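Q: Can someone sanity-check these two? First one:
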Amino acid sequence: MGRCFNHKFVLNFCNFLFLLCGTLLIVAGCYLYTDNKRILLSRLLAAPSEQLSSLPQPLLYYIALGLAVAGFVAVLASVLGLWASCLHTYCFLSVYFLSVVVLLLAESIICLAITLWPHCLGISLDEAQMVKALQRNYGVPGQEQFTNAMDLAQTRFGCCGMRSSLDYDTSLWRLQSYGQRNWPVPLSCCVLANAPQPLAFLDPKPANETQCQALERSVYERERYTESCLVHLDSWYREQYGIFLAASLVLALVEFSVLLGIILTCTGIASRKARLDSSLSSQTFSQKGRRRPTAKSRQALVDNIYESEVQLRGQGAGTCLGQSSSRHVSSEDFKELYVQPRDLYKQRHNTTFKPIASDYQTPTRSYLV
């Protein structure tokens, strides 16, 4: 019983951790869904991919929804696990085991895909492709999300262009005059006076617009950002991936502990059933062993009482005379059984013993032996 209790305690503790992880996943998905800047920056990661860039929302938007759904499924699975631990049956434990295995496999596939084959998911930070994406999409009508994401990256990281500010010289934004004709770079590349404001990237106000938009480097280098944004985007992507990988590893460890708890519980059920079967079999065996000596002792008692005391007189007389072995049994044959105990009682207590008339009544009917 102690081992069974320990197995159930381990399983319930692992279920509680799994429930806690599922709740944290739901909270993380909701938080990521409300983090508009983080979601907007993820548009730049999927820019080289035509499939992902054609999606109505950035990549992290769907990841946030996926985290919330995964957390909800984990909560349901943990509730099923708590129910299975209470019922303590193989059926519900097997269903719980399979659901945890499916979640673990799906999580492993996603992590391996992001780690080993990011190009399969459309995530690429190749310099040439990112520069082409900038020159093709920035400032173009219908690509407002990419434009806002690039302005956010330049305002947040203090950079200009994917490789340098020269990327805008051959972009559609400047060649087709989508921006100001006398602007070599967007206003988000300038040092902003309203940089502390959270929405400064949507309405950039340069501290010195004239020097920022100058063509000589000696003039604009103090009022314009000159670093590459691709380096900052790569470090930002690695930071987000590190957070996702750490959370995935913690969840995987919890799922492995849940699987171990299920296995221990199943083995505890099997061992408990084996102990019950062995105890039942030993009890039945002991009961049979007790019944047999009791029956034998009773038979021996009957033999000792009746066979030694009752001596049928004239047992061999009939056979010697050639008569039949059967004869009538009379009350004289049982007289010794009544007379001898009374004589003994009389000798010990010196009392007279009056026989009862019914003791020597002859039976009204004789039996044939």
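And here is the second, same format, sequence then tokens:
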Amino acid sequence: MATFLSSKTAAAAIARSAIQNRLRPLFFAGSRVSVSSFRRSSPPTSSLHLGFSLQHGLQSIMVTRAMSSSVQAASDPAQLKSAKEDIKELLRTKFCHPILVRLGWHDAGTYDKTIQEWPQRGGANGSLRFEIELKHGANAGLVNALKLVQPIKDKYAGITYADLFQLASATAIEEAGGPKIPMKYGRVDVTTPEQCPPEGRLPAAGPPSPADHLRKVFYRMGLNDKEIVALSGAHTLGRSRPERSGWGKPETKYTKDGPGAPGGQSWTAQWLKFDNSYFKDIKERRDEDLLVLPTDAVLFEDPTFKVYAEKYAEDQDAFFKDYAEAHAKLSNRGAKFEPPEGISLD
């Protein structure tokens, strides 16, 4: 004979089942979590904010059963689309394209292809939001990027930090006149500072052997020489500030009046426009107010790198095509997606 549970009994059963199955909230850092935001995970967390209502026990059972039969997305597609519009407005008002590109790159650029386990392998997993990683030498100044996007994260609890950082980076490229990046979303966040990668996985600006250094860092990520040169072309955006990186002039004729906070030395004259002028300017070396780092100069010195650098200096369409593919690849390497195939916004 069938037995029907009361609402109170059902809620208690749900709570016991949740503990046994190690249910935990998908979103962290103070985000409000609904029943539909829960997913199965291991290891267990220190506390469970189940949020089941005694008055809606039977409804909770139905939700839990539905969850068990489908894979939950790490980020909500509708919220991602809305967040993209907010990022566009942020770019229009703050002129922060370069630092948002850097934010996405530095969260993703910790990937190590020799490590199989997630999140130890690094990659775009939102770990850059933690203070311990923000204090890595290569991340100097990125706390300002986090401050810019945090209000958007607060507004959209259904988006992971990992997705937000990559969305901001790709949108900044596109809004600066660059190519459309073939992005996918659904990246899962790490949950604690202990899951941050060790320092030293990101490229340095002035290593003793620039070509060897670039290959060591980017080969570790599973990228090749063409992708190294294409990604270097993103230096068409932005400035280097000596107080952060130790490189560049305090200001130049191109940066003394901003936009945004004045100062620093840019690689290109129009440092908020994404085009192939980075390669042209390095090749010509005619303007001492434009920055050329050792890792920039080597693109025209190393025989293999030079083939691609010369091509991109002459053919912007080829640069855009190769850049878009390399950016997407960097953004995906090492990330854990839910659902596994990712989410497209197109």
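A (reply): Looked at the second one. The chain is about 45% helix and 5% strand. The longest strand covers residues 23-25.
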